[in-house]
Amino acid sequence: MNVNSSCFGIFIDINDTLYCSMNDDHKVIKRWLNDSEMISTTAAGTGTRGSASNELNCPTGIFVDLNFDLYVADRDNDRIQLVKFEELNGTTIVGKGSSNNIILLSRPSGIVLDADKYLFIVDQYNHRIIRSRSNDIRCIIGCYGKGSQSHQLSYPVTLSFDSYGNIFIIDSSNYRIQKFDFLLNSCDNSSSVQSVYSSVLTENHPTYSPTGCDLQNYYYEAIQMNVNESGYYSLISNSTIDTFGYMYGGNFYPSGPSINLISKSDNRSGEHQFQMRPFLRSTTANILVVTTDSANVTGTFSIIVSGFNNVTFKRLINPDKCIIGGSCNSQTKGIGITLDDILRYEINQNMTLKNQSLLVKISVALTMIMLIMGLINSILSLLTFQNADLRKVGCGIYLLASSITSLLTISMFTINFSFILLNQMNSSIDLSTRRGGCISIEPLLKLFLYFDTWLNACVAIERAINVYQGISFNKEKSKRLARWIIFILPFCISATTIHEPLHRNIFEYPVEEKDTYGNTEIIEIHRWCVINYSSAVQDYNTAILFIHLIGPFITNLFSALFIIFGTARQRSLAQTSRSYVTHIRKQLREHKQLVISPAILLILAMPRLIISLLSGCVKVSDKPWLYLLPYFISFTPSILVFVVFVVPSELYLKTLKGSLRTWQRRICH
């Protein structure tokens, strides 16, 4: 055969017809070898580069089957063309433009059809071998990206079979020929499953900065990839634009692109593609972010995933509410909302209280009111329970200690609010002072708060024991036990909350803007107290919250019910003229405050539990009032010791009046 340009591929069919794919002339020619005259005719293509059904673009590998149908690897059209015998118009059976376009090719260079009508394709720029038959198309070799390992290829060119079905591949960039053995039992267990996701980046897509510090004008699409079986999966992009890929485990935060990043890949695989082989987990979210090499670029793209099992895709509209900070310095918010979170965007830096928002001013007023009420509550309670007669049993000692802890709680609440307010208003406060307050104030506040609620629970338990033991109740033993519990309880509470100061720190980031010359300048620096728990510590923290809130409530409630039903049982045995139910009703009327009081305290404390368990992704700044008021309400039990314990008791009120008269005489004299 005489040709006027090079033949990339040749093939001889069963009729001794020689075929030549002319890469530079964009056509395939043929000649019957038994013809005495050396005349060639066109088998496919027009000689002009194109993508129409009768055109080719740099054809490479060719194959002719028993029906004399011609298969062409139409290289630069990224497709496989089937040209029927004695026809010039082809049909795209694999790749770009095919009706079954579940897999994309990139510069296919070789093609072989076996006796079972399986088509084997050398997908050169994807560095793999594809096997296709009707609706069954999958990667069989090189499915996990470019490389030089035994299961990898690098720009393969052609392949051939021997009589045993083994595949031989010219692995050009690895300077070798690879042999892959055919095993009868291999295909059902180890063949790779292909999944494809296709989309278009448009100007309506969100933008961000992949590095975190550049201008945020790179369009991106976040895709959640769900797998049924954990393992390594091969991801390859196919696009007309220059794409980059970033894989995240758990969550993706546009303002913090380095958070949760597990792998990334640029277009160094060639032809505007990225490829990676990340480990995808079936138990967590696997999020692929597809973006571009240059800013403000849009276009179509496809992601081909090969692995053990099918992969399902879900496009994510990702809210950036779980991040605090800026593009160059950011941090994920944990579970739970603190006072710092609520007031973070409400307090204006370097401004006096007069120039602060209405929310801040009202917060200051509420804090002062709660402090005054707390002082009055604690003073009246201390005047009541400092009486020696009331402290002859453990109950009086618990209530005296509760009077002190309620004062400490409301005082620490005021200090915490003042510390947050002053830190945000005055940017000149040094970092060590901020860090010391961040680590210590809130944990101390919780210590006093939990201490106070457990002391109230101890009061309920002692009353129940008193009813149960009756005249055999040992007052001296009760006093000794109370002193020991008051001494040990703070250490027990501290042991359960020691994790909090260890995970607290000051987070700071600069707010920047560009001047008229394009230079970046820092206009202010934000410094916030943040908590960052791991998932295990967060689970532990949640359990501790429930224990310290629900525990005292259950203790109070069951003790109250025991007192009511126990007293009713004793009365019914002594006064047989009345039924047990009648005695229960009487006891409920007489001691209803024992049931009502813990229920009220629980209702008032519930906002604290809810706020502590809210996701960090809640955008507090949208409705700060909705979170600020429950936060204040949750601390009202600390100013209600007098109302809950003293006011309902005639004995305690009588003792208080006596103490007030004593102090009045001391002052007058």
Automatic annotation (TrEMBL):
InterPro entries: 6-blade_b-propeller_TolB-like, GPCR_Rhodpsn_7TM, NHL_repeat, TRIM-NHL_E3_ligases. PROSITE patterns: G_PROTEIN_RECEP_F1_2, NHL. Residues 376-645 form the G-protein coupled receptors family 1 profile domain. Its main location: membrane. The keyword Hydrolase does not apply. The chain crosses the membrane at residues 358-385, 397-422, 481-499, 543-568, 594-614, 626-647. This is G-protein coupled receptors family 1 profile domain-containing protein. NHL repeats lie at residues 146-183. GO terms for cellular component: membrane. SUPFAM superfamilies: Family A G protein-coupled receptor-like (SSF81321), NHL repeat (SSF101898). It is found in: Membrane. Keywords: Membrane, Repeat, Transmembrane, Transmembrane helix. It comes from the Eukaryota.
